[in-house]
Design goal:
The protein is α/β, with parallel strands linked by helices. The chain has one domain: Carbamate kinase (3-Layer(aba) Sandwich), CATH 3.40.1160.10. It contains 8 helices and 11 strands. The protein has a 9-stranded mixed β-sheet with strand order 4-3-5-2-1-6-10-11-9, sandwiched between helices. The protein has a two-stranded antiparallel sheet with strand order 7-8. Strand 1, helix 1 and strand 2 form a beta-alpha-beta unit. The radius of gyration is 17 Å and the shape is globular. Its EC number is 2.7.4.22. Catalyzes the reversible phosphorylation of UMP to UDP. GO terms for molecular function: ATP binding; UMP kinase activity.
């Protein structure tokens, strides 16, 4: 298959996906692997936006549980996503993929501020756009950021790349060997069964805007391209 099923996508990466087996920090080999996979997709002509989390550096929820003010802890998490985004931008540009980082919190010395029309123009010019700093507001996850940006730029799908699981299961497959993987789900089924794929705010945004979600493993080289080309891997969530 040499053609793409989607014209414009949002790739959602967890911060932990950038840390490899260490579980903390940024692993250069992982950055390079992801960059190479994104390049494969870009070469198909797919307009690609990326939202990356910051859990490999800091989690606002953990800070809050330690007694820190929740808003302050969340703003620190947003800064962590910017660090990850800049690392990913560097990895992409090192292999010839023009990339722009847009942040919801202005820091013009290192990245552009998020402007919807400018982001769409970058995508139309086949530049990869990385959306950093979440929504710019505390109490919202990067899953919600992915859903919001996907709706704003009219992306056709959100690809949720995981580093520790290859889809959505009835139970934790690491604990329960009898857990079964779903091939297809609706957002309502996901919410009603409490599967924890993404938070309810993000799920509702996707459902209301009819944006499908594909959950798959990023640890196997070439998986992003396979999903973009329409190969059935992982779990697809859509509709009501």
């Amino acid at each position: 298959m040499t053609t793409a099923r989607y014209r414009r996508i949002v790739l959602k990466l967890s911060g932990e996906a950038l840390s490899g087996e260490e579980g903390y920090g940024i692993e250069p080999k992982i950055i390079q692997s992801i960059a190479n996979q994104v390049k494969e997709v870009a070469e198909l002509g797919v307009e690609t936006a990326i939202v990356v989390g910051g859990g490999n550096i800091w989690r606002g929820k953990v800070g809050s549980e330690m007694g820190m003010d929740r808003a302050t802890a969340d703003y620190m998490g947003m800064l962590a996503t910017i660090m990850n985004s800049l690392a990913l931008q560097d990895g992409l540009e090192n292999i010839g993929i023009p990339t722009r980082v847009q942040t919801s919190i202005e820091m013009r010395q290192v990245a552009e501020p998020y402007i919807r029309r400018k982001a769409i123009r970058h995508l139309e010019k086949k530049r990869v756009v990385i959306f950093a700093a979440g929504t710019g507001n505390p109490f919202f996850s990067t899953d919600t950021t992915a859903a919001l940006r996907a709706a704003e730029i009219e992306a056709e799908v959100i690809l949720m790349a995981k580093n520790n699981v290859d889809g959505v299961y009835t139970d934790d497959p690491k604990i329960n060997k009898d857990a079964e993987k779903y091939e297809n789900l609706s957002y309502m089924e996901m919410l009603n069964e409490g599967l924890g794929v993404m938070d309810s705010t993000a799920s509702t945004l996707c459902m209301d805007n009819d944006i499908p979600l594909v959950v798959f493993s990023i640890m196997e080289e070439g998986n992003i391209k396979r999903v973009v080309q329409g190969e059935v891997i992982g779990t697809t969530i859509r509709g009501k």
